[in-house]
Amino acid sequence: EFWDELGIKKSMFTCSAGDSNSGMSNNFHICHRSFYLDESRYVNSILQQGNKNWDVSHFRSGTIDLLRKYYIANVAQGAELTRLHYVMRSYHDFWRLQIGYVRSMMIELALAEQADYQYLENGELGTLFALFVSTGLSCPIENILNTGSIHLTPLSLLRMFGNGAFQELLYDIPRRK
What we know:
Helix 5 packs across helix 7 (about 125-135) and helix 5 (about 95-110) crosses helix 9 (about 155-175). The protein is built from nine helices and three strands. Strands 1-2-3 form a three-stranded antiparallel beta sheet. A hairpin with a 2-residue loop joins strand 1 (about 25) and strand 2. About 60% of the residues lie in helices and about 5% in strands. By secondary structure, it is mostly helical.
């Protein structure tokens, strides 16, 4: 119904983390997925469990430290809170970087035979795929945990949908009408 507004109101179509949806304690969290990541006891407990229940690679690679430093702000620190809101506005409002990144990665993945070759030949398909990923599958915390940036979609997600799943979704649309 709001397709005409996609180009000017990206935030209507993305995860609302850090925008209209956030979590508050002594700290401001951009979403529920970061609620306990600023608690050392919780992180240490997960690290002690090792790989049997959790993928702890994110905890060991310094990503949690990055998340704590830049994406969880103390409510009493007005400047940090303002900075975090500014960063999240760039995620929700300006998406040329995300669209360009996804399109470029799909070309690279297709050249490496890890995504459908059609992304080499069909620019419209690449743009549509980038819109799909950057809106319907957007998760800033997932992006941070996997890539270290809120703007960069994990390659595993691009591979998964870029090998025919997205095209199946596209082909299914006319059949539903």
